[in-house]
Amino acid sequence: MPKEKHKRSRVKASGPIADKSRGQHFLKNPLVVNSIVEKSALKPTDVVLEIGPGTGNMTVKLLEAAKKVVAVEVDPRMVAEVQKRVAETDKAKHLQIIYGDILKTDLPYFDVCVANVPYNISSAIVFKLLIHRPLFRAAIIMFQEEFALRLSAKPGDELYCRLSVNTQLLARVDQLMKVGRNNFRPPPKVESRVVRIEPRNPPPPVNFLEWDGLVRLAFNRKNKTLHSTLTTKTVLELLDSNVKTLASLRGEALPAEWDVKRAVEAVLTETEFSDVRASRMDVDDFLRLLHAMNKAGVHFAA
């Protein structure tokens, strides 16, 4: 009989079962939780956005440090769990829970975002945050280690990619700490890292659709020269279509001598990027190339 009682209490203490379909891994180590909150450098006047509060281990610590916590949670079990955690405390009135999918939710104002997010939607969350207005001060987020390292990878690094360039255009990224898999319940198959993302304020004056169009094409073959990448038949047809669509929308006529290949090659020669590879270009290189292409009438989005 004593053994049975012990078994029941152990099951209860383990908490809710993680939903693998939602990528749930609950952070269980209080030392890691405290470290993340500390690195968030919260002010008593801050409104904090927490994505996926889970069982509320982080939520209760954030409530101690900030004015208000807005928690977005898609799992009704976790909504009930967090509400239960704070119901009998004097911080309950400082917690707002939004029940819904973070990617489909209109986010309210917040100063700082703190989150341990499902790794399968990491990229979507990063860019949802970076286009959010008004700008927030910082986001301190736990990601899968490789994804986190891609965010701050530099030209020439093996992990440098389109994600790296797009993120670094819009924000500064700092690696804060590595978190081993045994700090979670259940342990994920990968190691994790916490990063700090600070949006550039003011944002760079660039058309992001144009920018991403160029970067996407360049990184499709990141180790090929830009001349090789941007003068393929498929790419030139796309660019020519963009130019003609924009001209039509503006009610303008293209010059009779317009030739998209000649225009692209002229810009690559002028900027000395013909023999350069995307894997070696930084944000300023891409900005210079995009400006020159647009000036020559070449567009990467219609």
Keywords:
302 residues, Rossmann fold, Helicase, Ruva Protein, domain 3, 2 domains, seven-stranded mixed sheet, two-stranded antiparallel sheet, elongated, disordered N terminus
What does this structure look like?
- By secondary structure, the protein is α/β, with parallel strands linked by helices.
- It has two domains: 15-199, Rossmann fold; 208-295, Helicase, Ruva Protein, domain 3 (Orthogonal Bundle), CATH 1.10.8.480.
- It is built from twelve helices and nine strands.
- It has helices at residues 2-14, 30-39, 57-65, 76-86, 122-130, 145-152, 162-170, 208-220, 226-230, 233-250, 260-271, 283-295; strands at 26-27, 47-51, 68-73, 95-99, 112-116, 138-144, 171-179, 184-185, 192-199.
- The strands form two sheets. Strands 4-3-2-5-6-9-7 form a seven-stranded mixed beta sheet, sandwiched between helices. Strands 1-8 form a two-stranded antiparallel ribbon.
- Helix 11 crosses helix 12 (283-295).
- The protein is elongated and about 75 Å long.
User: Low-confidence runs (pLDDT<50, min 5 residues)?
Assistant: 1-13
What letter string, H or E per element, gives the SSE order? HEHEHEHEEHEHHEEEHHHHH
* CATH level 1 name of the largest domain: Alpha Beta
- Helix content range: 40-55%
Main β-sheet, spatial strand arrangement: 4-3-2-5-6-9-7
Number of helical segments with 4 or more residues: 12
Shape: elongated
